[in-house]
Design a protein that fits this description.
This protein is of the alpha/beta class and about 200 residues long. It contains seven helices and seven strands. The longest helix has about 35 residues, at about 170-204. The two termini are about 25 Å apart. The structure holds 5-O-phosphono-beta-D-ribofuranosylamine.
């Protein structure tokens, strides 16, 4: 009986990637070691067939799907939404997913889509955030976990972590230090958001 209850209450997370997938691995590990309790990564979806993260997800025993960018953004998102709905996904985490979501997608999961970005938003949105910080002469940058809306890197900010820029930093060294912070704060925020979701569903 209690086992059944646990199974029903387990949150189902989908992660969307386009590349390496290190944040995906960080989230998967956190669901397994209890830092994100009562949750599982149910599926990893990539829009890129050759994404390294796909192999990493498979190695972790997670279902993977490639949904290529055929057709319009709306058609593409429609296909992804169908995959999410058929798997009864509760929360969507973007982790290096390189396509802006359509209105239909965002509205289908209000406050249920998260993203991680390698800067202290609203500074340095969009591509090459670490390069923007270095070339802009910033003294520090960092990373941000935020809800996703239709505006690129524009949704409500949930958590940020600051990283100092060293005089001898290259894009690679800076990106590596930011990534360490990403791997810490993303699981923390997912755990908090799921906790809030569970609370609000038990309120009603
Ligand atoms: C990370 O820097 C993330 O902040 C950005 O894309 C990169 C993805 O890295 N959105 P990975 O695929 O999680 O290793």
């Amino acid at each position: 009986m209690s086992q059944r209850l646990e199974a029903i209450e387990r949150a189902r997370i989908a992660i969307l990637i386009s590349g390496r997938g290190s944040n995906m691995v960080a989230l998967a590990e956190a669901t397994r070691d209890g830092r994100i309790p009562n949750a599982e990564i149910s599926v990893v979806i990539s829009d890129q067939r050759n994404a390294l993260g796909l192999a990493r997800a498979k190695a972790l025993g997670i279902e993977t799907l490639v949904i290529g960018r055929s057709g319009t953004r709306e058609e593409h998102d429609h296909e992804i939404l169908a995959a999410l709905r058929s798997r009864k996904i509760d929360l969507v985490c973007l982790a290096g997913y390189m396509r802006v979501l359509s209105r239909e997608f965002v509205e289908a999961y209000p406050d249920r889509i998260l993203n991680i970005h390698p800067s202290l938003l609203p500074a340095f949105p969009g591509l090459d955030a670490q390069r923007q910080a270095l070339e802009g002469g910033a003294e520090y940058t960092g990373c941000t976990v935020h809800f996703v809306d239709e505006i690129l890197d524009g949704g409500r900010i949930l958590r940020q972590s600051r990283v100092e820029i060293q005089p001898d930093d290259t894009i690679e060294t800076l990106s590596d230090r930011i990534l360490l912070e990403e791997h810490k704060i993303y699981p923390e925020v997912v755990s908090l958001v799921l906790g809030n979701m569970a609370e609000s569903s038990s309120d009603g």
